[in-house]
TrEMBL record:
It comes from the Bacteria. It comes from Actinacidiphila cocklensis. Pfam families: ABATE, zf-CGNR. InterPro entries: ABATE, ABATE_dom_sf, Znf_CGNR. This is Zinc finger CGNR domain-containing protein. Transmembrane segments: none annotated. SUPFAM superfamilies: Jann2411-like. Residues 152-194 form the Zinc finger CGNR domain.
Amino acid sequence: MKEITATPRFRQGAGRLSLDYLRTLRYRGTPGVTEELADPAALAAWVRQCGPLIDGPRSAPPPTPADVLAARALREAAYALVTAAVAAGGPVVPAAAARTRLNRAAAAAVPVPYLTAEGELRRRADDPVRAVLALVARDALDLAASPALLPRVHACASPDCGALFLDNSRPGTRRWCSMDVCGNRAKKSALRARV
């Protein structure tokens, strides 16, 4: 009997944790914009799916509605920083509020690695949500301060997408955030137009 695996709730594969996090505002800049971090359960689900595998204490507090608002604000600060750095072709100084938000999030404790008795590498954090958001903030700061990577950060060529991705292809000419989704849609659309 085949095992049925659930379709991932959130899109991944942008090439960096921070860019995957930016995708939680889906279809950014289009009429179909969709907030994927709609509530505390969605934020916790993103951390479980997209962050490193983390063990937390059973007493770890679940995210609150205030945590969701802070997480969204962090996402928008990261988006502003990365897009400004890409446009400038190098590091930029973001607005004071964005800089403060990113620096504060990046200063939080990150997941600590440990080895289990079975030899499996795991990570532990007292507050898994805050720890993963610290990794997101650190990744956004690192990406925005990396002149060699910035020319490889592209917006998806699909007019209905709005996602950013890091182009790791050798020639650096990738056009779609995902060939399976946006690239496939574009090919089907082009085929329909020819027929």
